Amino acid sequence: MQETKYNISQGNMISKKVILTGSFGVGKTSLFNQFIYNKFSDKYLTTIGVKVNKKVINVDGNDLSLLLWDIAGEVSQDKVPTSYFLGASGIIYVFDLTRPATFRNIEKDIQYLNSIISGGVIKVVGNKVDLIDLQNKEEILTQVPYDVDILTSAKTGENVEDMFSLLGKNLIS
Amino acid sequence: MTIDENKISEEEVHLLKIKEILLKEDREELSILRKKLEDEEAFNKRLTPYIEKHIEDLKVNFPDQYNEMVSKIFDEKLMNSRQEIIDLLSPSIGIMIKKYISMQFESLKEGIDNQVKNTFSAKTWKTKFTSKFYGVKESDLILKEMDKYQIQEVYLIQRNSGLLFGSASKSVNLDQDVIAGMLTAIKSFAEDAFQQGAQDLDMIEYGTYKILMQNFKTYYLALAITGSLSAADKDEISNNVLSFADRYLGKSISNIDEKIMEEYSKYLNEHFINTNARNQI
Ligand SMILES: Nc1nc2c(ncn2[C@@H]2O[C@H](COP(=O)(O)OP(=O)(O)OP(=O)(O)O)[C@@H](O)[C@H]2O)c(=O)[nH]1
Ligand SMILES: [Mg+2]
């Protein structure tokens, strides 16, 4: 008789669902790829539907298994099935620091997301920080109508790990 | 016209007489016209050519003149009654699909029946004997023997989040968490896109795999199956899933951790995978 394999564990790792959302082209997939595979590409391949992947991170000595849902960016929220967000413990809302159109509706969007996953953690992330210089940074941030949690670059990897750790901490506490 | 001379003055009588003389011709013409108008048949006869001409005209020019207006009305009506149209169409589309499938099945069976006629192996004779004895069609028996279904993998998944409670499979598979997530995404998408009442997606076919899904309130079970599945097989699997749920899934779970996953994976393995392997020896 053949031996059957099933999950075997050492610690007691918790699993959490996390969604990457935001307008198209802001760099959700790039952040996902940088975080999971340490890779970046200049090519833009728009995400169709959704891609799910997993990464285990360590938060204060505990393993946490993040199931990341990278969903296609849509200009209007009602094109994304609401059910994708259900059961998510965390949401990463990404916008592009170089495209004001991607942060103009941030307030409305966050309000909507809060209504779907009440009590979940939402992080607001300004991406493509490598494309703006220091002077512009302050200027742009004053235009963003919401508190930004962290600025990242999927290209250089700046703050990518930190962003997920920050989220992880919030998910566990 | 007669004049009542008792009631009106002399002057008036004169006036009327003058009127009569002056207007005589006009009055006659008027009465002829009136007659013509009152004679329906004659009137129609005269009018018909004009109406016909107008209709001809409309036939040629209607699209130009009214197209926009009509299509706007039509669009609006269509939009407003989308649901009714879907309701109206879906049963007949369903029937068409069913017909097509049963036709395909018939021809498949015909092919097998022919093969049976032409083969005289010992096995065929044995099958023939069994079929005579039990009254089952030979082709059914052969089909069954060839392709008994096998449960290759089983997943117990939290319904909303797509997080894995546990899984078991016949072969090593490292990506169970990811598969559970993607399955849930596909399921959500399909249920969202083809919203029809409260229908759930219950089967996906992928290559030689069929993935059967059975929903419960907060979780669902997904079974990856190879081989052919008859309605009776599906029933059998469904009952098997129900007995699993009855036995192990009483309590609700909010936090999924490794201990829980290990426990459920063990149950799944014992209930679906190893039992299955044992039965086949
Ligand atoms: N310079 C720079 N370019 C970036 C960065 N992140 C993403 N890009 C580029 O921006 C483009 C879009 O990136 P994606 O990651 O595909 O964007 P997305 O949000 O997944 O887009 P959709 O899937 O269409 O919603 C690509 O050409 C990336 O190379 C960044 O941090 N810096
Ligand atoms: Mg993408």
How would you describe what is shown here?
The complex is a heterodimer of chains A (173) and B (281). Chain A contains four helices and seven strands; from the N terminus they run E-E-H-E-E-E-H-E-H-E-H. Chain A has 173 residues and is an alpha/beta fold. Chain A has one domain: 3-Layer(aba) Sandwich (Rossmann fold), CATH 3.40.50. Chain A has a six-stranded mixed beta sheet with strand order 3-4-2-5-6-7. Chain A is globular and about 45 Å long. The termini of chain A are far apart. Among the domains of chain B are: 83-145, no CATH class; 148-280, Beta-Lactamase. Chain B is built from eight helices and five strands, in the order H-H-H-H-H-E-E-H-E-E-E-H-H. Residues 276-281 of chain B have low confidence and may be disordered. In chain B, helix 3 (82-118) crosses helix 5. Chain B has a five-stranded antiparallel beta sheet. The N and C termini of chain B lie far apart (119 Å). Chain B has helices at residues 10-38, 40-80, 82-118, 122-134, 138-146, 176-193, 231-248, 258-280; strands at 150-158, 164-169, 203-206, 209-215, 219-226. Chain B is of the alpha+beta class and 281 residues long. Helix content of chain B is 67%, strand content 12%. The chains are: A alpha/beta (173), B alpha+beta (281). The A-B interface holds A 1-2, 4-9, 11-17, 49-54, 65, 67, 69, 81-84, 86-89 and B 158-164, 166-173, 175-178, 181-182, 185, 188-189, 191-193, 255-259, 261-262, 265-266, 268-269, 273-274, 277-278, 281. Strand 1 of chain A pairs antiparallel with strand 2 of chain B, so a sheet runs across the interface. Bound molecules: guanosine-5'-triphosphate (GTP) and magnesium ion. Residues 24-30, 41-44, 46-47, 72-73, 127-128, 130-131, 153-155 of chain A line the site of guanosine-5'-triphosphate.
Keywords, separated by commas or semicolons:
heterodimer, A: 173 residues, Rossmann fold, six-stranded mixed sheet, 7 strands, 25% helix, disordered N terminus, B: Beta-Lactamase, 8 helices, rod-shaped, binds guanosine-5'-triphosphate, binds magnesium ion
